[in-house]
Every structure is written in C-alpha cells, then in structure tokens.
C-alpha cells in the first residue's frame, strides 16, 4: 500500500511495519534493542525516533551486540531483543549466538534483510538468513508481510522463554519494515510455565532413603532461571547434603556463603568419577551438570552411584547416564511441592542431618583457610600468581557486586574465594566461544538497572570483542573491566603440557599461544575508547585499584599482569 498523505481518520491507523514492530516490543516490556545498524536496518532506526521509551544500545560489532543481549537477559530474567545487519552481521554474531544457545539464554534475534523485491538480482549483502541462523536457534523465519509482525514477534518472545529457553530468529526485509499496515497488535498472552513435576512422592522417599552424608546435590544453571535458590537451600539443609555447582557453569545459583556450598564439580571425567565414588547418589537440578572438556577413558558415574534429576528440559533427562528417577517440571514449583513430603520422610533423622550441616560448615572453613594460606605463600612470587589475583579481586569486589567472568586462568580460584549470600552474584562463559564476557557485562549492568558490574576477562578473550568498552563508556555504565593479562593462551598451554608425548611439550615451544611481539597495551586500548585505565603489577595494588574502579561509578579498565600457572 502506498505511504501517501493521511486524509481520513481510518488512514491514521496505518503505520509502517517498523512502527508495528516497536508497538509490539513496547507491549512486551522491551527496554533495549541491542544492535549495530546497517542499510537494511534504516527503517527501524528511523522509527526509533518516535519511540523514546525503547533505547537502542549501540554495539560496534555484532558479536558484542549478541553478548550484550545475553548478559541483559540473564540479569533481567527476561528475553533480550537484538537486531543484526544482514548475512554478514548475523555471521559476525554466530559465535556468541552459539554461546546463548548452550547457556539457554532467551533471546529474540532479528536481522535486517534486503528488500524482497530486490533479491532476484543477487544484491550486495543478501543471504539466506534463516538458513544461516538455524544451527544456533530454536527456529528461524522470515516475515513476509507487515501484518504478520504481531503474531510472529509475540511467538518469538513466547518460544524464547519456553523450556528449554534459547534464541529464536526473525528475518526482517526492508520492504516489510516500510510497508504500511493497519494491523492491531492485541495484548500479550498470559502463560503460566511453572509446571509441577510428577512422582514427587516417590522422589521424596528415594532421597530420604539415601544414607545421611551419602547424597550430593548438583545445583545446575536452571536454578537461576527458575529463581529457585531458596528452595534448593531448604532442600540441602533438610538432607544435610553438600551442594556443588555444575562442572562448567553459566551461573553459581546457590549462595557461596552458605555452609553447604562446596564449590563446582571438576570438568575432567576421571576427577568426576573419583569424587562421586564417595557418594551413593546424586540429585542433579537442571540439565548439563557434568560437562567435560577433554575426553578421558572410563565411566564418569560409578556403578554404585544412583542418579536422580529434575529439569524442565526433557531432552536432558536420562540423556547420557542411567537414572533411577528423573522428573520433568519447574524446579522452584516442584521443590516447593515436594518439600512437605520430604520433611515428613526425614523427620526421624532431623538431628543427624543438622549434624551434617555443622560438619559441612567446618569443612568449608578449612577449605577457605587452605586457599588463603596458599595465596599467602605465593604473595612474594616474581609475578602475581592467578591464585593471588583471584583472592585480591574477590576481596575487592565483595559479596554484593555482580561478576561477569571470562578470565579462565583465575576463574576456578575466584569461585573458591566468593562469599556471598546472593545466588545471583556470578555468571560465567558456559558456551566456551570467547568474546562473551566484556559485552555481557555491559548488558548485565543494563539488566540490573545500571548497577555496578565487574567484568573479569583474560587477555586473549579481551581481544575478541574489545568494542564493548566503547559502549560502556558511551552508555556511562558503572562497569569495571579487569583484564587478567598473562600474555598467552594459558589454558591451551596447560592442556598441551598435560600431553607428555606432544612435541610442543617436550620442546617447550607452543605455536600461536604467546601474545607477544608486540605485546598488547590494554591501558592504551581502553583510553582510546574513552575509559580511564591503569596497570597493576604488584599484589597489594589489586584490591585498591578494583575498589576505586567500582567506587568511580563510571566505566573503567584495570590491567593486572599475572604469571602463568
């Protein structure tokens, strides 16, 4: 339909497809559009001039835009919305889109497409966007007419949130975004997703029947999205069971200050097997609890260790290991329903379980004292060690500031020093594709209402999406970027050194793993993008620098020179 002058009241109902899209987004409660604009996004950018209550968060590269939306969605506990630029921009974003898929982050991903009337001429920037996106999303579709926007966009928000959560994709041709439409957007649907699992009476009896002290609980990432940390605390205290996080987590969805928190599961098969040999059963809450990185021969679950599971994702139940009982349901709703049954089944052993909680508190104190003693012994090392860097960073950050972590060299140590009553403090790169952390911290701050965030990132990872620090400065966000700089791909070297037959190990020569000649100056990089920055080379300067960065209330960067481990 022609976009001619409006001459009647009925004509006033007509608006461009881009305006229809923004109406739907507003009704879905969208605060931010994360993106990097190009020619095919111009109709949307123009329509945003009339929509001041939706802010466009400008990333300088599409990989950063995806991770910003991911960080926002995880922090705000609602789908993130982003807009990429045609085939090239979608391609740029694929690494972090795969991260979002693995982390089950709800995202509504859109990309501008060439005018559909133009596609038969093979124009510049044209590609089959739905085919490109499909490996990384739950579904992908191209919008054919502006009148389809309300249904398809609402469907995208619904399906992004539906278990298992994850990204969905819509292609938005320019002509659709410019097409005039009088379509109504209707109202968002009310959908109750918190289903209660079945067989909870059986599960309660099974858990109560396990000998005290012989059950291990694994707190998976799904506890975060279900907002079930309180229920998991009650469950663990009832059973006197230590709680471990997933082997390669997206979140630590359990208070790290709680006496029953025992850290994260190891990520090597042999180590998992040895740990589980001390237990008769595990209760895994949420899927993907035992991710391993490298192959190791032999089983991971000992023959005498029973597996119980609870998740909304039926695909993960019994997928790899035999289970005695797996139940499908929302973790918070299901644990609330099961708790009275468990209380009744465990009443006679209540004092025994309470004694286990006291023992766990003593063990936790011993672990923390051991870590502190190790750090003290490394304080005067020639270079700051990863353990010392982690200790001082945790001390400076404290229990209340949110942490977005992509510093692999210090991550495991840092988790050992965390001591927070909040189950929301910490997030990590579960997908494994580098370049997530710095932009995710930007999105996280926005998702928390512009609260302070500390982004811990390795020097290698920092080079994948450093454009994010410009966005932090542009948005005036209180994000403190801490680059743990060992000037190498340390994790790869460690893996190589574990293979004694590798020539690289025998010769101590590692190709493409030393970020030297020239070394990267992260302080200068940050300053070039408008951030105050400083370099730290002494252990005693770490905590004051991070504390000052947080207190500044502005985006800033701290480069910490650490040694290899």
Automatic annotation (TrEMBL):
Residues 214-337 form the Thiamine pyrophosphate enzyme central domain. GO terms for molecular function: acetolactate synthase activity; flavin adenine dinucleotide binding; magnesium ion binding; thiamine pyrophosphate binding. Residues 421-560 form the Thiamine pyrophosphate enzyme TPP-binding domain. InterPro entries: DHS-like_NAD/FAD-binding_dom (IPR029035), THDP-binding (IPR029061), Thiamin_PyroP_enz_cen_dom (IPR012000), Thiamin_PyroP_enz_TPP-bd_dom (IPR012001), TPP_enz (IPR045229), TPP_enzyme_TPP-bd (IPR011766). Residues 16-119 form the Thiamine pyrophosphate enzyme N-terminal TPP-binding domain. GO terms for biological process: carboxylic acid metabolic process. The keyword Kinase does not apply. Keywords: Thiamine pyrophosphate. Belongs to the TPP enzyme family. This is Thiamine pyrophosphate-binding protein. It comes from Acidisoma cellulosilyticum.
């Amino acid at each position: 339909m022609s976009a001619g002058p409006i001459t009647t009241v009925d004509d006033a109902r007509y608006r461009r497809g881009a305006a229809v899209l923004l109406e739907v987004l507003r009704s879905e409660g969208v605060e931010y559009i994360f993106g990097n604009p190009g020619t095919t996004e111009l109709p949307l950018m123009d329509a945003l001039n009339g929509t001041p209550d939706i802010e466009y968060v400008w990333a300088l590269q599409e990989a950063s835009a995806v991770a910003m939306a991911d960080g926002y969605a995880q922090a705000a506990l609602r789908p993130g919305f982003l807009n990429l630029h045609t085939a090239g921009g979608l391609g740029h974003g694929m690494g972090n889109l795969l991260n979002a898929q693995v982390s089950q982050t709800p995202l509504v991903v859109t990309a501008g497409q060439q005018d559909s009337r133009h596609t038969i001429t093979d124009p510049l920037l044209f590609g089959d966007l739905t085919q490109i996106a499909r490996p990384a999303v739950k579904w992908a579709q191209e919008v054919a007419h502006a009148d389809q926007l309300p249904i398809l966009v609402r469907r995208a928000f619904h399906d992004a949130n539906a278990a298992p959560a994850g990204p969905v994709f819509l292609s938005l041709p320019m002509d659709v975004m410019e097409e005039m439409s009088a379509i109504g957007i209707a109202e968002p649907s009310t959908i109750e997703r918190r289903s209660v699992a079945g067989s909870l009476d059986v599960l309660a009896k099974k858990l109560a029947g396990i000998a005290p002290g012989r059950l291990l609980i694994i707190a998976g990432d799904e506890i975060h999205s279900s907002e079930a940390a309180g229920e998991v605390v009650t469950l663990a205290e009832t059973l006197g069971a230590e709680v471990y996080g997933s082997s390669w987590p997206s979140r630590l969805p359990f208070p790290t200050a709680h006496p029953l928190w025992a850290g994260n599961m190891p990520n090597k098969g042999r180590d998992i097997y040895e740990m589980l040999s001390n237990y008769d059963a595990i209760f895994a809450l949420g899927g993907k609890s035992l991710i391993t990185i490298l192959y190791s021969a032999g089983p991971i679950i000992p023959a005498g260790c029973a597996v119980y599971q609870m998740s909304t994702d039926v695909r993960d139940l019994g997928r790899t290991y035999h289970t005695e009982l797996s139940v499908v349901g929302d973790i918070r709703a299901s644990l609330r329903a099961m708790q009275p049954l468990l209380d009744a089944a465990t009443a006679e052993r209540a004092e025994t379980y309470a004694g286990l909680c006291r023992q766990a508190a003593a063990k936790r104190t011993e672990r923390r004292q051991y870590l502190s003693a190790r750090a003290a012994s490394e304080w005067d090392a020639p270079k700051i060690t990863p353990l010392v860097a982690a200790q001082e960073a945790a001390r400076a950050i404290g229990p209340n500031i949110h942490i977005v972590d992509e510093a692999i060299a210090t991550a495991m140590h840092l988790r050992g020093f965390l001591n927070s009553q909040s189950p929301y403090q910490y997030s990590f790169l579960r997908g494994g594709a580098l370049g997530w952390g710095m932009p995710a911290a930007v999105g996280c701050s926005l998702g928390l209402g512009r609260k302070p965030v500390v982004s811990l990132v390795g020097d290698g990872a920092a080079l994948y999406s450093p454009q994010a620090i410009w966005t932090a400065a542009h948005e005036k966000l209180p994000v403190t970027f801490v680059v743990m700089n060992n000037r190498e791909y340390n994790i790869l070297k460690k893996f190589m050194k574990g293979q004694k037959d590798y020539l690289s190990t025998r010769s101590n020569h590692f190709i493409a793993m030393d970020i030297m000649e020239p070394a990267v100056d992260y302080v200068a990089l940050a300053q070039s993008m408008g951030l105050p920055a400083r370099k730290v080379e002494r252990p005693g300067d770490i905590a004051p620098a991070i504390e000052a960065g947080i207190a500044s209330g502005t985006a800033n960067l701290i480069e910490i020179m650490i040694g290899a481990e």
